[in-house]
Amino acid sequence: MTIIEARGLTKIYKTKTGAVHALDGLDLSVPRGTVKSLLGPNGAGKTTAVKVLTTLIKPDRGTAHIDGIDVAAAPKEVRRIIGVAGQYAAVDENLTGFENLEMVGRLYHLGAKTARRRAQELIDQFELTEAGNRPVKGFSGGMRRRIDLAGALVINPKILFLDEPTTGLDPRSRLALWGVIKNLVAEGTTLLLTTQYLEEADQLSDDIAVIDGGRVIAEGTADELKAQIGGHRVVVTLVDEADAGTAVGILARHGEGEAQVSGDGRVVEVPVTDGPRALQYVLADLGEAKIQLHDAGMRRPTLDDVFLKLTGRKAESDDDDDGGAGTGTGSQRVKTELENAK
Amino acid sequence: MTTLTQPDSTSALASTGSSLGQFVSDGWIATRRNLVKIKRVPEILVFTILQPIMFVLLFSQVYGGAMAIDNYTLFLMAGIFAQTVIFGSTFSGAAMAQDLKDGIIDRFRTLPMSPAAVLVGRTNGDLAINSISMLIMMATGWAVGWRVTTSFWGFLGGVAMLLLFSYSFSWVMALLGMSVRSPEIINNASFMILFPLTFISNAFVPIHTMPDILRVIAEWNPVSALVASARQLFGNTYAEFPEPTAWTLQHPFVTVFIGIAVMLLVFVPLAIRKFESISSR
Ligand SMILES: Nc1ncnc2c1ncn2[C@@H]1O[C@H](COP(=O)(O)OP(=O)(O)OP(=O)(O)O)[C@@H](O)[C@H]1O
Ligand SMILES: [Mg+2]
Asked: Among A114-123, A314-323, B38-47, B213-222, where is mean pLDDT lowest?
């Protein structure tokens, strides 16, 4: 049962420097009651996708349906059943936290009493008591963020959209929000969230869509994606740059694929399958070769690794415009590869 | 954030009232937000309360003696009223731009509310600001000798016309605010445009004393028609001034009415259309 469905979404922004394909034929489908993460670097088109799905902007081409309702044709019906927290906190600076939430409730047409009760519940749930009765102006970014997130939950929506929900939260609030999200999903809410962190997508979602250049370049569960990009990485930091060549050889011997040199030429890393064992072997061999280390260890794959593997290039930031254009065939290949792997 | 309250299906409690009922309710919620803002933002309070007092006193007391008009205060008040309420309407422009910047427009636009409600609430906010300013100016004017010499209905009609004109102008400014997207530019531009517009008119000096070019501009300036109409309704007219030659000032009420109609009929739909497609970056 698909509850969020997008077909061929295309959105082109005309800017002074040329046309930006913010969305370039994005397909997406999210089954009812599941969590989907849109994972992608800056400028991938995550926010644009969320804005189209939440009725904020109209796509140039393509269609989107939320719970069977056409987003472009009946935005108001869609708005009745969704909760949204955009990338940047959308709160009224001059209202208190409570007043903000109550206003949102009233505009969902909850009725005065219910709106007030619900606002108070959310204030308690998100530990906003302090912000409850002082104007938002003057509160920290994290506090605004929490008021905004609470605003998305006012109606316990059937479908929830969160655009980079944990950006700007301290670790404690981040964990707490993960808790809230997991509870909601347990109650049957469908969630679409965007994130730049593989770790977060892994923790929260059933399914991940990696997007780049306005398109889905890979899709699958966290495990499927990880299988694609390899598991852990072994990373060593050398004392002497001159040892890099030897170290690359040793790491490559125990890893899966090529070892990479980064940083100032002293950090060498390689994807591995069995992390701890590979690390032991690597350290033993490095010791034998009398190579001195500053640091050695394992790390989990990051979005950068996903990217490197899927597109053969580093995740690019927003200002490197048009990065997505050249990768068409490459990403297509990876996608098919991944589908075969399933 | 740790204790999750039992989620009831609050969405099921959402009322499904009539669309007119919802429009009125949404409009009121949005208005209330702007009324709270008047109370909590000191700059707005200063504009609304202190500036009108200052303007009335400065103009009537400082310029009064030098003007070759008997009882300049009588002449002046309609002009000050018009200028103040027109400037009051620029709040809608700056506020819509600010709301876009703050992202709160995105919140509103994902809620199942009436799309016109945010704009209705904003322009109502200006109406409240202007109503308060009018009361304060009238009281201050009264204290320095301003009198209405027509009737109670003339007085009421004059006040209503000034407020209606400025209310309509708020919609123009709201559209500008959504298009320009920068509260600073809106504020500076209004200042640069509205100051000359209100001064090159009959608001502070009689038009027949102006050099030719300025006189023609002033005659066709809608602000002049507004001020002339208000003077007639308040009975602050001067028999010794020459009859106006421009059609707009021979028929000031018609001119004002056309101005209001154009602003409402053209800019209300345009502003609502614009609102339905905007989103912060
Ligand atoms: N209103 C706009 N006008 C012009 N270009 C835009 C606009 N909105 C987005 N873009 C461009 O479209 C592309 C996709 O932007 P989008 O905000 O969807 O990316 P994102 O994945 O959310 O990135 P981030 O991680 O930085 O939030 C970017 O290149 C961006 O510069
Ligand atoms: Mg984004």
From this structure: A314-323
Q: Please state, in angstroms and rounded to a whole number, the distance separating the CA atoms of residues B17 and A23.
A: 38
Q: Are residues A249 and A278 in the same domain?
A: yes
Q: B223-247 pLDDT, tens per residue?
A: 999 999 999 999 999 888 899 999 9
**Nearest chain B residue to A186, by CA:** B7
Instruction: Tell whether A151 lies on the interface with B, counting CB pairs under 8 A.
Output: yes
Chain B CA closest to residue A118? B10
Three-state secondary-structure class, residue A90: coil
Tokens of A256: 């899966």
ipTM field: 0.89
Domain of A249, CATH number, reads: 3.30.70.100
- Spatial distance between the Cα atoms of B154 and A163, rounded to a whole number of angstroms: 56
Average pLDDT over residues A302-330: 54
Which one-letter amino acid corresponds to residue B72? Answer: Y
Question: pTM score, two decimals?
Answer: 0.85
Chain A, window 178-217: residues with a beta carbon less than 8 angstroms from a chain B beta carbon: 179-180, 183-184, 187
- The domain total for chain A is 2
Cα distance between residue A80 and residue A66, in whole Å: 11
Instruction: State yes or no: pLDDT of B122 exceeds 50.
Output: yes
Say if residue A170's pLDDT is above 90: no
Measured in whole angstroms, the distance separating CA A260 from the mean position of its chain's CA atoms is 25
The Cβ of residue B206 has, within 10 Å, a number of other Cβ atoms equal to 16
Q: How far is the CA of A164 from the centre of ligand 2 (A)?
A: 7
**Count of residues in chain A:** 342
Mapped onto helix, strand or coil, the DSSP state of residue A159 is: strand
Local structure of A3: helix, strand or coil = strand
> What number of CA atoms fall less than 13 Å from residue A79's CA on the CB side?
23
Cβ–Cβ gap B4/A151 under 8 Å: no
A81-113 residues labelled b (16+ CB within 10 A) or e (exposed): bbbbbbbbbbbbbbbbbbbbbbbbbbbbbbbee
On whether the CB atoms of residues B186 and B94 are closer than 8 A, the answer is yes
Q: Let me know whether A159 and A250 are in one domain.
A: no
Domain boundary among A173, A201, A226: A226
Which residue in the set B1, B14, B110 is minimally distant from A82, CB to CB?
B110
Residue A255, SS3?
coil
Read off the tokens for B184: 């600073």
The CATH number linked to A213 is 3.40.50.300
Of the candidate ranges A108-117, B12-21, B113-122, B152-161, the one whose mean pLDDT is the lowest: B12-21
Given this model, what pLDDT does residue B16 score?
53
Segments forming the whole domain that contains residue A156: 2-226
Average pLDDT score over residue span A294-317: 74
pLDDT in the model for residue A334: 37
Which of the listed residues A211, A226, A241 is the one where a domain comes to its end?
A226
Does residue A237 sit in helix, strand or coil? strand
User: Any CB–CB contact under 8 A between B277 and chain A?
Assistant: yes
Mean pLDDT in residue range B35-53: 92
What pLDDT is recorded for position B177?
A: 97
Q: What percentage of chain A exceeds 90 in pLDDT? A: 48
Chain A interface, mutation test: which of B38, B105, B111, most A Cβ atoms within 10 Å? B111
